[in-house]
Design a protein that fits this description.
There is one protein chain. The chain is an all-alpha fold. Helices cover 68% and strands 1% of the residues. The protein has 19 helices and 2 strands. A two-stranded antiparallel sheet has the order 1-2. The protein is flat, with a radius of gyration of 33 Å.
Length: 331
C-alpha cells in the first residue's frame, strides 16, 4: 500500500549496525565493536611496553615467539650453543684450542652430513662428535678404511659411519679386524645374501663379536631358506630384528609357514613379504579371520590384492578388543 514502505519482494535495507529493524538497533553494536577494539589496542600497548622493559636475555626466543621451546632454538641456531659448550669441555679435557676444535667439528659434519643430522636430532651426543673431531685426520682415515671394506662402490661409507659412529673411533688394528670380518662374512653368505648390503643396512654387525656374528649369519641363511625369492636386504632394512633376535626369527618362520599353507599356490609370497615385512610378525590365522569378518568373501584373495590392508585391520581389531575389555571391566 501506502508510501514510504519498501517494495514487495525487495530485501530489507542493511544499516551499519546490522539488519534494519524497529528501533534502529545498530548503535549498541557499534559501541561494542569500538569497546573491543579499544581493549585490544590497550593490550597491545601493554605488551609492547613489557617487551621494551624486558632484558633481552634470549633474543632468538623473543623473535620467534614465546611458544617456541628453548631447546629447539638452540638446536636450530647457526651458532649451536650446546655444540659450542661440548667443544669447550672436550677442548679443556684434551688440551686443544676450543675455536679450532669447533671448526673441526664443522668440517666433520661437512664430510659426514648424516652425523651432523643425527647430532641435531639428539640421537648422537655432541661430546662424541667433538671427540671425533679432536683428531680429524685419524677419523677421516677410519671412514676411508670403512669405505674400502666394502666390495661395492655403491655403499655410502659416510651414511654407514653416521648410523654407527663407533666405527669412526677405530684405529688401524681394529680396522684390520673389521676388514677380515667383512671378507669372511662375504665368503660365508655367498649367494644367500649380499654381505655389503647387510653391513650397510645394519652397520653394528661390523662391530659384533664373533659369537654374535655367527648367530646373525645363521638367521640370515635361515631367512634365505624360508624365502628363496625374497629380497633379504630389503627385509632387514624394514625389520632388522629378523637377524638380530631369535624370537623375531622364530615368529617369522611361523608366519611364513602359515602363509604358504593358506595362500594359493601361485601367490608369490616371498615378494609380498619383501614389500610388507610386517606380515612376518602377525598371527596369520587370526589375520585371515579378521579379514573375513571385516570384508567377507575369501580373505586370502583380499590379502593378496592388498597386503597393506593387514596392518589397518589389525589396528582396528585391537582397538575393538580393547574397547570390549573396557566394557567388560565396567560391567
Amino acid at each position: 500500500g501506502g508510501g514510504g514502505g519498501r517494495p514487495r519482494g525487495a530485501p530489507p535495507a542493511r544499516r551499519r549496525g546490522g539488519w534494519a529493524g524497529a528501533g534502529g538497533g545498530g548503535a549498541p553494536r557499534d559501541a561494542r565493536i569500538a569497546t573491543r577494539a579499544s581493549r585490544r589496542a590497550r593490550g597491545a600497548r601493554r605488551a609492547a611496553e613489557d617487551d621494551a622493559r624486558a632484558t633481552p636475555t634470549r633474543p632468538a626466543l623473543n623473535l620467534l615467539g614465546r611458544t617456541v621451546k628453548v631447546k629447539h632454538i638452540l638446536e636450530g641456531r647457526a651458532d649451536d650453543a650446546l655444540g659450542r659448550l661440548a667443544a669447550d669441555v672436550v677442548a679443556d679435557a684434551r688440551g686443544v684450542d676450543a675455536d679450532a676444535l669447533a671448526r673441526d667439528v664443522d668440517r666433520l659434519f661437512a664430510l659426514c652430513p648424516g652425523l651432523g643430522e643425527r647430532v641435531a636430532r639428539g640421537e648422537v651426543k655432541r661430546a662424541l662428535a667433538a671427540e671425533l673431531a679432536v683428531d680429524l685426520r685419524e677419523t677421516m682415515a677410519a671412514m676411508l678404511a670403512i669405505k674400502n671394506t666394502f666390495a661395492s662402490a655403491d655403499v655410502d661409507a659416510g651414511d654407514v659411519c653416521a648410523r654407527e659412529p663407533r666405527l669412526l673411533r677405530l684405529r688401524e688394528e681394529a680396522l684390520e679386524g673389521v676388514r677380515e670380518r667383512a671378507a669372511s662374512t662375504r665368503e660365508r653368505l655367498g649367494d644367500a645374501c649380499d654381505a655389503d648390503g647387510l653391513f650397510a643396512t645394519i652397520p653394528s654387525c661390523l662391530l659384533a663379536s664373533q659369537e654374535e656374528l655367527d648367530g646373525i649369519l645363521e638367521r640370515v641363511t635361515g631367512l634365505r631358506a624360508l624365502m628363496p625369492d625374497a629380497d633379504i636386504v630389503k627385509l632387514l632394512r624394514g625389520r632388522p630384528a629378523l637377524c638380530l633376535e631369535d624370537r623375531a626369527y622364530s615368529r617369522a618362520a611361523i608366519a611364513v609357514s602359515a602363509l604358504r599353507k593358506a595362500m594359493p599356490k601361485d601367490c608369490r609370497i616371498d615378494l609380498m613379504l619383501s614389500d610388507f615385512p610386517s606380515l612376518l610378525f602377525m598371527d596369520i590365522e587370526m589375520l585371515l579371520e579378521d579379514l573375513r569378518q571385516t570384508f567377507g568373501g575369501d580373505p586370502c584373495w583380499t590379502l593378496r590384492r592388498n597386503p597393506g590392508i593387514a596392518t589397518q585391520v589389525r589396528l582396528v581389531t585391537r582397538a575393538r578388543s580393547y574397547a570390549d575389555v573396557r566394557v567388560l571391566r565396567h560391567d
